[in-house]
């Protein structure tokens, strides 16, 4: 167990990093996406969560595809690693932590729910290399079963673009996100909830590429559309507000971003809980913004500590 001194040093390093990001011309390094939240669905399934668009990551941190001495069996086939290494594909723990990627593929194909990239046990979205593999598989089967212009297929394209973007594969991700956005606008309308999610996802990718002027209209449109569709206090609207604030800060418009982040943090804290990844993302973004605006740890430090811990 880490000592109090070790924890203190780690926290100081974290705060120093936040301060470094806040220094300079009013911009911060683009936040990496993590893992996104429950995936978008077709009309016959549950409504999509805008957590998929959150830049701050997410449901769980990625773990390498390697078995450990403490957990040596696949939760699906109950066999050890063998020639195929085990991976930790989701936040499940204990005896359910590891699985073979081939077993995950088999289970995923048996479910035939191409728009859902969630673990059937913990309900969180898969993470790391497994989610990219399954997203590719989902799009392939959706195209074969539903056709390339079906709403569900376009949602699968959005998922694949989003998880590739979160993994830093921006060049490969962008065509999938553009296909999803333009297709959903054509099939369902620009104000449809799926199209709004696709717009925000593409905006966040452009933000990560430093194309802030192109990103801002997309994330703003997603936020305004969700305000009209679901109301300002809906959880998805609050996530869209956070995404807009992230881009505004990159544009040097931090004073416009602050009230959006405060609204997002308060609302997500009430709706999704203090420890939800979206709430922690909002706390982290607000902490960095306050450090930039005021260079004062008074309010920023508790927010940074909360997100870090």
What is the total domain count?
1
- Structural class, judged by helices and strands? mainly alpha
Question: How far is it from the N-terminal to the C-terminal residue, by CA?
Answer: 15 Å
| Percent of sequence in beta strands | under 5%
Report the C-alpha radius of gyration, rounded.
20 Å
Our count of helices gives 11
Strand arrangement across the biggest beta sheet:
1-2
The general outline is globular
Main sheet: strands, sense, barrel: 2 strands, antiparallel
Q: Unreliable stretches, pLDDT < 50, 5 or more residues?
A: 1-69
**Chain-averaged pLDDT:** 80
Name given to the CATH homologous superfamily: Tetratricopeptide repeat domain
The helix/strand series, from N terminus to C terminus, equals HEEHHHHHHHHHH
CATH-level-2 architecture: Alpha Horseshoe
Number of strands: 2
Q: In percent, how helical is the residue content?
A: 55-70%
Question: In CATH's first tier, which class applies?
Answer: Mainly Alpha
CATH fold label: Serine Threonine Protein Phosphatase 5, Tetratricopeptide repeat
